[in-house]
Amino acid sequence: MWIKSGLIPLLISYLVALILMVMPMPVFLEAWRPDWLSLVILYWVIALPHRVGIGSVLILGLVADILMGTVFGIYATALLVMAYPAIRHFQRIRNYSFTQQSVIVALLILVKRVIVYELEHILNDAVFNLAYLYPVISSAIAWPWVFLILRKYRRHYLVRE
Amino acid sequence: MKSLFERGPSLLTRLVLALLCAATLMFLDHRLNTMQPVRSFLSTLVTPVQYLAVLPEQTLDRLVYLSTTRSMLREQNEALRQELQELQMAVQRLNFLENENARLRQLLGSDVRQASRRMAAEIVAVATDPFSHQVVINKGSANGVYEGQPVLDNRGVLGQISSVGRTTARVLLISDQSHSLALRAERNDIRVLARGTGDLQRLELLYIPHSTELEVGDKLMSSGLGGVFPEGYPVAEVIEVNRDERYQYARVTARPYAQLDRIRTVLLLWPPSAIEQPVFDDIVVDEHVD
User: What transmembrane ranges does the database entry give (chain A) (predicted)?
Assistant: First the structure.
């Protein structure tokens, strides 16, 4: 009874997001790579807020830290702070139009990126460059498609609360 | 929102607990450096993700290879043969010079330079975060890779190994903001310190006086002073010298020779002083026999 239906499809969606996060890409696209992991996390916490919660986000954040080679906890902290408002207001966000949702997603990802930058700045003296915020825009553009694809995926594989 | 049958601590409590957990890990990792064994174990664990990440690219390459025509292959073969011939001629001359150099150094009473051992490795993943320029390669402690090992590509110095898993290792590129290395200008032996800027095409030279003799186009080689990179490998070319007196030092920028933005294959170097030994995979040896 501990393993609910649709665990494997859920894990596969995380895996795909992580793979897309580290996949080598052509240089001119590199700066615009959407923040796949954040998008997938945001979708699941809005769709299944009682199943994908703080714990899952923490673990995914730590895995992201290992994959990106950053100090442990940087991505975890940023993703947690990003996911919290989404979990808190999932009912409201579900009822927004795609445009409104995209704006919210852009804001949340902006917050996430600023936190990552601030922590890197404090710990490793990182210097800011504007290109780091381009993915905020590309993620907002990608959101409606991610939403539709994952909704279809969720319904097809019966991933439930 | 509060569900009627919500169990356990409230959302905010859970968030605070998770954040505390992350903060503790951050402290342990950054301040106390106690996470290194855990990190290399976990790196080994996430290796499949990194291999899956390069799979589409490899499949595409394979398809491109399969669709090349016979005449194209023949042309390529011809070009490669020519290149090989030219390189062989250059190597002949190099061998002669190396011997001569060793003899002259013996006469002078200084140490004879020993050859480094090397191994080719492939990139399996990139870290896209502009605050950390890193790539992951497909060789690890099982192949004798060690922390602080120099990594090159066919044009120049690329970076050094920053952490090692069993079958993968992480390379910190010279363009990373936290990386600096000691260089020497080939033309006039000026010693400089080059720091990464977070831009793949730019290194910044630190503490250069306004009266410097460095000029645009100067070739910078590794000086061997840091103890990590062996002496005499090309690193970067000076592309800008700004002697604006308003700044405390002259602003000099250089562009790395290594193509940091399109790395595919890298060369791991074992300097003569290294304790670790390269361990070659059997598969690699078979390929050489073919």
Answer: 6-29, 36-60, 66-86, 98-119, 131-150
Question: Which residues span the domain enclosing B162?
Answer: 114-290
pLDDT tens digit string along A120-136?
888 887 888 888 889 99
Those residues whose C-beta lies under 8 Å from the C-beta of residue B50, and which sit 6 or more positions away, are A22, A67, B124, B125, B136, B168
Of residues B18, B53, B197, nearest to A58 (C-beta): B18
Residues of A in contact with B123 (CB under 8 A): 24
Structure confidence by residue, pLDDT tens digits, B94-136: 888 988 888 888 888 777 777 778 888 988 877 767 777 888 8
Assess whether B163 and B255 both reside in one domain.
Answer: yes
Confirm whether B87 is domain-assigned: no
Distance CA B267, CA B154 (A): 8
The A residues from 127 to 156 touching B (CB cutoff 8 Å) are: 127, 129, 131-132
Tell me the per-residue pLDDT of B258-288, one tens digit each, with 9 for 90 and over: 988 778 889 998 888 778 888 887 544 444 4
User: Based on the domain organization, do B28 and B157 belong to the same domain?
Assistant: no
The whole-angstrom separation of Cα B4 and Cα B177 is: 50
Same domain, B270 and B181: yes
Q: Which two tokens stand for residue B271?
A: 């300097």
